[in-house]
Structure formats: C-alpha cells, structure tokens
Hints:
Helices cover 47% and strands 0% of the residues. With 106 residues, the chain is mainly α.
Amino acid sequence: MSTPxxxxxxxxxxxxxxxxxxxxxxxxxAVAQGYRVDLQLAAIGLLAFAGAALLGGSLLSAFRRRDxxxxxxxxxxxxxxxxxxxxxxxxxxxxxxxxxxxxGRA
Length: 106
C-alpha cells in the first residue's frame, strides 16, 4: 500500500537503510571470517554513504516534484462528504438523525 503522493515504489530512505543493514551484516561476516576491520573508519564511511544517499534521494525527489512527475499535482478532494451517484441524501451530517443532534448521544 502506498501513501498519498507516492508512486508505489520503494522509498529512498527504505533503500538506504536496507543498504546500511546489508553493509553491517557484511562487516559482521567479514569479522567472523577473520578479517580485521577498522570500526571507526567503517562507521565514518557508512554514515557518509547513508547521508549522501539520503541527500541525493531527497534532491531527486524535489526535482521530480518540480517537474510534476511524482504525483505532486494531484486534484484536490471535493468539498463535503463523498456520496455515491444516484443515492439520495437528506442530511450529510453523520448522526444528525440520532437523538441529541449531530454529536450523537448527549
């Protein structure tokens, strides 16, 4: 299920955090195989990659919206309640026919 304004594909942040988790898993496998990993350098590189990818993804999304590609120009919802065609309505306020007025029970 996609949220309003998205095309239904994966979000950039989802892909980036998936990459971060995959890199962490790869690092753990490397350490388990006996490789020496400089944890400070690996953390700096991983955070730099994630930050650059998130920034690049947000810029790409902004350029798409500006060009009208990513569903940024969707029509506004009609004012008032949505009623199926051909269905007679007497009052659009929910609960107006209940005792106590439009708020339901007093």
